[in-house]
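Hey, can you fold this one?
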Amino acid sequence: MALALYLLGAFLFDVANNRNFQWGVVARYLIDTSIMVGLLRTIGLTIVAVSVGLLLGVVIALLNISRNPVLGAIGRLYVWFFRGTPLLVQLIFWFNLSALYPRLWLSLGFGASLGSVDTNTVITPFVAALLGLGLHAAGYIAEIVRGGILGISKTQREAASALGMSPFTQFRKVIWPQAFRIILPALGNRFIAELKDTSLVSVIAIPDLLYSAQLIYSQNYQTMPLLLVATIWYLIAVTVLTFIQKQLERRVQLAGAERQAKT
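Sure. Predicted structure:
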């Protein structure tokens, strides 16, 4: 224990006093306007991607546990594809979709067409980032939600059915509130992972936190200090999200305990 503390102290002392870290440059750019805008864009991308992933993930999870073999196959195929291919590949694919479909057609079916639009007009880099992040997140969240739903006792569903609840009402009032308590820790971890995954959108020129830092050091050649700036903000964001996650878990558990006590 003493040796570990000594080594940690020696490391921190070296980091604080090593001039190569250029802490003055780090401090100068820590709240730079472009860095802050990039940070806000990173947070926004994360929130939207996880929201899309959660909504779509719940649907895919329900397809996965469906007794209908076709619906079950669709759900499993979605999870297989979007979890089986790297996020970076998916981002680049959506960014270059116009190479496959130069124009997107709006059709009513049976040959009726409402016209077409240039693909690059619709699939902008920002839209490509949201598609890549959201669809990829849905593949993971679907499995998280599926595990939570399957963790609910079968007797709960039978009791809800005996009370005359419709399948939708059963899911909304009985299954989902209990499943949410089960999946919350994993869902919080997915949120944090998604925040870090947004750094990959820099490859399609989305000015997120990392890309904003890259733009600056490409001009002033202060590569390491700007990477430290990005690292510090990622750590701050993850720390805040972790705190929020723990508080939310505590409140959900307390609410569940109070509900059980009343019954």
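Residues 26-262 form a domain with the MetI-like fold fold (CATH 1.10.3720.10). Let me know if you want another pass with a different chain boundary.
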